[in-house]
Amino acid sequence: MDNKFLTLIVIAFLGTTISRTLRMGTAFLTISEGFSFLSLLAATFAIGRILSSYLSGISTEKYGSKVASLGISVIALTGLGYAVLPAVTYLPLRILHGLASGIAWPSLQTLVMSSVGEEKRGRASSLYFIATNSAWILAFLIGSIIDRNAMVVSSALLILIALVMLKLDVRVGVKAKKGKGKGKKRFVPPNEAIALGGLAVGFMTLLVNTEVAIAVLGLEFEKTVIGIVLAVAALIGAVVSYLVNRKLIDYLETHLSLLLPSVATPVASTLIYVSPMTSSVGVLVTKAAVSWWRSTLLGLSRAQETGKRVGLFNSSADAGRIIGAFIASQGAAMLPILSALSFVLGLASWTLSLKSRGEVSEDKK
């Protein structure tokens, strides 16, 4: 892992920390509006993201880090809107926030994954999610106490990060490096498997990474406790994603890398709504499993046309969030449907991936 990779990881940590703090802060400020409103906040964010996330990956292959810089700048402007405008405007602002995030983070993922060879893709994606899941720790903790004035400061910091990205002028184009991984058969699922997996993980992401998780836990706990529970879950997910993907993707190149999180995540999610006594444990375990699953899909997206595959993964996950958010907005009783849909789609993704075993990767060309 070279200096460029590490610089991009630091930027991912700082940028996502601030962006997610803005999301969580506004969610906590409006928690009294109830489950349906918070579900709509999640839905509008996903609507914005899906409009831009696919094109972001493709555009990054041509324009490099300028794409991420643009997205981060628009997130900063959205933060100013949160700070000065009334809560009634949060739904349209959430669409803009999602649109900007769909530009910024898939672009940054494309740059991160393109900066390493395929033989390190599992570790690279895991380190990316270690950084961004660590960002959730601060986002949930700070978000539970942030006020509108602090959102102005957050926006100013995002502008500085956007300027750094513009100055770096990172480009896509790094091929797999020569070494002990050269000539090894890669497990490279087809685009259809990535798309179905993204859709499935989108349903589960909705439960633990967005406003819906606040609504679920907010029924039983205070804001600070919610932040702590979700922060611990993020830390566990970060560690799991690195330890597991380093072995299953980089070393073993096995289809089990996709099967295991596809099954474990929806099964774990049932704990969220089975009983109030298990809801916090369910969020924690599901959060860890989602981190593992998302990291797996991002790592497996590193192949030919990385930008396109990363964009496909993100846009599919956004579609899952949109569908899932509207299902969840009908009430907490609808949450089991999300688990069932995720389970079926996850198995379909794994089934499609089996026919790609042994596909020739970049480093064999």
Characterize the structure shown:
The chain crosses the membrane at residues 35-55, 67-89, 95-114, 126-146, 152-172, 193-219, 225-244, 256-274, 322-348. This is MFS transporter. The protein is mostly helical and 365 residues long. It has a single domain, classed as Growth Hormone, Chain: A. Helix content is 77%, strand content 1%. It contains 14 helices and two strands. The chain has helices at residues 3-29, 35-50, 53-63, 65-84, 90-114, 121-143, 148-168, 191-209, 211-218, 223-251, 256-274, 279-300, 306-328, 335-353, and strands at residues 186-187, 357-359. It has a two-stranded antiparallel sheet with strand order 1-2. Helix 2 packs across helix 5. The chain starts with a helix and ends in a 6-residue tail after the last strand.
Distance between the first and last residues' Cα: 22 Å
- Biggest sheet, open or closed, and with what strands and sense? 2 strands, antiparallel
> Helicity level, as a percent range?
over 70%
Strand order of the largest sheet: 1-2
Integer tally of domains = 1
By DSSP, the count of extended strands is 2
* Inertia-based shape: globular
Please write the CATH class name: Mainly Alpha
Residue windows where pLDDT falls under 50 for at least 5 positions: 174-181, 359-365
Class per helix and strand makeup:
mainly alpha
Determine the number of helices (DSSP H or I, runs of at least 4 residues). 14
Q: Which superfamily, in CATH terms, is the homologous superfamily?
A: MFS general substrate transporter like domains
Rg: 19 Å
By CATH, the topology is Growth Hormone, Chain: A
Rounded mean pLDDT score: 85
Compressed to H and E, one letter per element, the order equals HHHHHHHEHHHHHHHE
What percent strand?
under 5%
CATH architectural name:
Up-down Bundle
